[in-house]
Write a structure and sequence with these properties.
Aminopeptidase, SH3 type barrels, six-stranded mixed β-sheet, five-stranded antiparallel β-sheet
């Protein structure tokens, strides 16, 4: 049975603007990271769901954590903030009753990718009654999730970090690194391509068909909302059309898999 992972984009659109780099918003970064990480994890064969399907709507913290009932891992995605711009580290907040093993793997991998100066920190906090302090972790704990984390991707009150996190290519690097941590931990091997045919329905009004598997490739056509296409190969979040016309994005806001 596939390991099940619940991803939580920690905040909504334009939430938590950086004071030192005004273009950066934590809510916008974590929404992108959730999307990239979901794709990466699915390429390894994990079953992945998200607590948010709309970036502009917020749910109660506890409720988002409890949505992970029946899942093996809960990851809430964030960047941190403080009053001291010199603070430059990754913080992994874990359930108080969990070992440091997986938290350490996340801390090391994210620190290496981001190139932050200070050593990562593993952190836990209890409330006055002895339970989880953070609402999402409290909800995930109540749902019986064994591995539950808040991943703080550096401090966006640090100018260098805020600018780094603003770059989409860097967010993709984080997704690759974090997916690999989980894959190595659970013994999964990445399947970059697949010959299994699947049929997808277009849900975007219009979707570009490209010459290759990525946005850098030339647009060779378009497909319209409501049409269905057979995909014979997947790569980099794109699917190859059986007709040979090209590749389309398999992003969840563009297509849906026909059951």
């Amino acid at each position: 049975m596939a390991i099940k992972i619940m991803l939580d984009a920690g905040h909504y659109t334009n939430y938590n603007q950086s004071k030192v780099f005004k273009s950066y918003y934590e809510g916008n970064m974590v929404w992108k990271l959730q999307s990239y990480l979901k794709k990466e994890l699915e390429e390894y064969g994990f079953t992945v769901s998200t607590t948010r399907t709309n970036r502009d709507k917020d749910k109660a913290l506890y409720d988002r954590g409890y949505m992970a009932k029946g899942y093996d891992v809960f990851l809430s995605l964030h960047s941190n903030a403080c009053d001291n711009e010199s603070v430059d580290r990754v913080v992994i907040i874990k359930g108080y009753d969990q070992k440091d093993t997986l938290a350490s793997k996340f801390g090391k991998a994210i620190t290496e990718v981001m190139g932050v100066k200070q050593a990562y920190q593993i952190y836990t906090k209890k409330n006055s009654s002895g339970g989880e302090y953070y609402g999402v972790l409290r909800g995930a704990k109540a749902a019986g999730v064994a591995n539950r984390f808040i991943l703080e991707h550096g401090f966006h009150t640090n100018t260098k970090t805020a600018k780094w996190l603003y770059n989409d290519e860097n967010i993709k690097k984080l997704a690759i690194a974090e997916a690999k941590v989980l894959a190595d931990h659970y013994g999964y091997k990445k399947k970059t391509n697949t010959s299994k045919e699947e049929v997808y329905r277009i849900i975007a009004n219009s979707l570009n068909v490209r010459k290759g598997a990525g946005t850098k490739y030339e647009i060779v056509g378009t497909v319209k909302k409501g049409s269905a296409y057979t995909i014979v190969e997947k790569k980099n979040g794109f699917g190859k059309l059986k007709s040979g016309a090209g590749w389309i994005s398999l992003g969840e806001k563009y297509v849906e898999l026909k059951k």
